[in-house]
Amino acid sequence: MELFEIVGGNRLKGAIEINGAKNSALPIMAASILVDGETVLRNVPDLADVRQMQVLLSRLGVKAQRDAEGALHLRVEDEMNAHAEYELVSKMRASVCVMGPLLAKRKRAQVSMPGGCAIGSRPIDLHIQGLRALGADFELVNGDVLLRAKKLKGADIFLGGPFGSSVTATANVMMTATLVEGRTVIASAACEPEITDLAEFLNACGARILGHGTPEITVEGVDGLTGTEHTVVADRIEAGTYMIAGAITNGDVELQGARLEHMQAVVDRLRRVGVIIERGEKGITVSSSRHLEPIDVTTQPYPGFPTDLQAQLMALLCLADGNSVITEKIFPDRFLHVGELNRMGAHLRKEGPTVIIEGVKRLVGAQLMASDLRASAALILAGLIAKGTTRIHRIYHIDRGYQHIEKKLAAVGANIRRLNE
Ligand code: EPU
Q1: Is the preceding omega at residue 193 within 30 degrees of 0, hence cis?
Q2: Is 394 left (phi over 0), alpha (psi -120 to 50) or beta?
Q3: Is 117 known to be catalytic?
Q4: Which residues line ligand 1 (CB under 6 A)?
Q5: What is the pLDDT of residues 47-76, one digit of tens each?
Q6: Rounded CA gap, 35 and 37, in Å?
Q7: Each residue of 249-288: pLDDT tens digit?
Q8: How far is CA 190 from the centre of its chain?
Q9: What's the 115 CA to ligand 1 centre distance in angstroms?
Q10: Could you tell me which residues are beta bridge partners of residue 229?
Q11: Ligand 1 mean position to 169 CA, how many Å?
């Protein structure tokens, strides 16, 4: 197994290229199941999760290949199989995004029920509720969700859950509704930029979707979708992670290709901490002074502060001059990084879905265990500024969502190496 070794203390300076968003690329790849002809996707990051989605799609009869320029070409070659098995779904939750497209195009979707994961319990009741409202019959068969329909029909669907909207449930229902007779109106739809990107891709294929980016999405069903070319939107979570890397090292970085308009809550909170964030020529520039103000943050669905940057922000606030409070309103158990940060000398106290962060003067290097994708990113950020050497084990988590993170950080001055255990 591989690990990262980081010697903390270097100031980051220079430009970092931001990739296409993982959470946009994965549902768009799944949407290729709906399309007749070839789908060409540009700016698809080279990540373990993307390769995993390619494996799943190939089992489902979709040929997926990169060309010499890195564009991903997808084409349905065989529509017989509609079963996403446990072995694949258990490795990546985003596999659930094939459910809607399979149901819409093949009239049957059998998808292993994803379990909980390191960030907590993650039900899919809203996905099933939405697809049933479109006319699918639902059964649980040997731990698989089995959805079948002779004919689907547009409907009014409310997709709000106990924690607000659901990103991938909105994606599943919206994708299905593109090929369903009549009008579907999704209320309490997710507004994330990745949903907007998916809708723009589907519209370019011939779908008729309106209202994406707002909580009410309307889809007029069409008879078929045809292939198109699409460039995946910039990854706001990758950009936010490097923004915090710049801030925590008192650095000066430019995030090339990052979209400020998708990061307003993050920018607002970081500016309150004292980070200087400006629109740059090629993206966003970030610089920081040594002094960090404490703040209160609550994670919320977009446009609120994203849960996918909660752990990284916590690493920064460990060094603020006073007490900060982070409340997690999307995944109340997403705090596996708390114990690891405390091992580096942080003063964090968890009380239910809230963590109280008493700022300390410095963090110290330690042996750490990565537990999930974003928690791992937070440990790297802490390692960049910690005194001495930090070793982070089980880094396969980070390769799921950050393309060459150690190379990008080293190129702007970090002392980070990938080693074998
Ligand atoms: N929820 C339900 N029922 C459902 C679905 C969701 O109660 O049927 C709850 C969840 O338990 C959670 C909340 O609704 O409390 C929101 O979850 P959501 O469904 O929006 O999450 P997701 O679609 O499974 C996506 C991202 C996650 C990101 C969340 C929240 C993808 C592939 N994944 O997950 O990304 O944290 O939205 O923004 O888009 C990551 O990239 O590290 C990651 C975990």
Answers
A1: no
A2: left
A3: yes
A4: 23, 26, 93-94, 122-127, 161-163, 166-169, 306-308, 330-331, 373-374, 401
A5: 999 999 999 999 999 999 999 999 999 999
A6: 6
A7: 999 999 999 999 999 999 999 999 999 999 999 999 999 9
A8: 13
A9: 13
A10: 40
A11: 8
